[in-house]
TrEMBL record:
This is Uncharacterized protein. It comes from the Archaea. InterPro entries: TGT-like_sf. GO terms for biological process: tRNA modification. Gene3D superfamilies: Queuine tRNA-ribosyltransferase-like.
Length: 293
């Protein structure tokens, strides 16, 4: 499984780990590294902030960025919702401009998932699965797990957007690739990721962002892990950039060891037939619809 690190700016040089990276076209005008690079359209931010953006504008920006692949200008949908057919038009436009564009499939209703996959499969064999993280995660992760496996069984290759943490990789265990940018957010908020424990607060503020304060033993475990895995930089937990780099390293080199109901459910759903998963999705979608009404 490939892990793409989301890079927001030049302040946290995660590309120095020589791992694949994901950048947002809204934030970047050029690429200065040689890492495998994918470019996100910023579809969610565009929808949230009402930024006017057209396929023509995306094409122009994408062609200024030297990258390996580009995520389609996608209009997100909530689980069990309908696909916005403008996504198909955006994809075709970029594809015809000879851009290596990757389409996004969200957790639509089953009929629309099939429709989207049938359309995109005419052109490419890789799909990005979106909508797994808040605030798009309407209806809980249970429905998303079923939706993911339905899509997984329908395509050759799948990238799960926003699922790069060790825990999320355990849920979406059979994905071909994932990405994450949370290492930077955690570092900026005074948090470090302790292998096998999760996030801990090491900052000086009274606010701990609902995380436990790191104990001396946990800090020692972190330092030992960094030494054993060959972390290439000096360690300074007082500096947010250093914390962010450490978090990125831990995400890349550690696994989630515990078993949770979400991990167990994902393994169980993986064993089900595609048609059976589709029926279960229909049941959950109808339940969610009734509760909303």
């Amino acid at each position: 499984m490939e892990i793409f690190l989301g890079v927001q700016d030049l302040k946290v040089p995660a590309w120095e780990f020589h791992t694949p990276v994901m950048i947002n076209q809204l934030r970047w005008d050029s690429v200065s590294w040689n890492n495998k690079t994918w470019v996100d359209s910023g579809g969610y931010q565009i929808m949230k902030k009402g930024i006017p953006l057209s396929p023509e504008m995306i094409e122009k920006k994408y062609k200024t960025l030297s990258a390996d692949a580009y995520i389609n200008l996608d209009i997100p949908s909530f689980p069990c919702g309908r696909v916005d057919e403008r996504n198909f038009k955006h994809f075709e436009y970029l594809y015809e401009k000879e851009i290596n564009v990757i389409p996004v499939v969200h957790g639509y209703n089953v009929e629309d998932i099939d429709k989207a996959i049938d359309f995109y499969s005419q052109y490419v064999d890789v799909i990005a699965f979106g909508g797994i993280v808040p605030p798009s995660l309407k209806g809980g992760r249970k429905i998303v797990i079923y939706l993911y496996h339905y899509v997984r069984k329908s395509v050759k290759k799948i990238h799960v957007l926003g699922a790069g943490s060790p825990y999320m990789r355990k849920i979406f265990f059979n994905a071909d690739s994932v990405d994450t940018a949370t290492y930077r957010v955690k570092g900026a908020n005074g948090l470090v990721i302790i292998p096998g424990k999760g996030e801990r607060y090491v900052g000086e503020r009274k606010i701990t962002w609902n995380a436990k304060r790191a104990t001396e033993e946990e800090i020692d475990n972190l330092l030992s892990f960094l030494e054993k895995t060959g972390y290439p930089y000096d360690v300074d937990l007082r500096d947010w950039v250093n914390r962010s780099m450490i978090n990125a390293w831990v995400m890349l080199h550690s696994d989630y060891e515990k078993e949770t109901w979400e991990i167990r459910l994902s393994k169980e759903v993986d064993k089900m037939h595609r048609e059976e998963i589709g029926e279960k999705i229909g049941e959950i979608c109808n339940f969610l619809k009734l509760n909303v009404e």
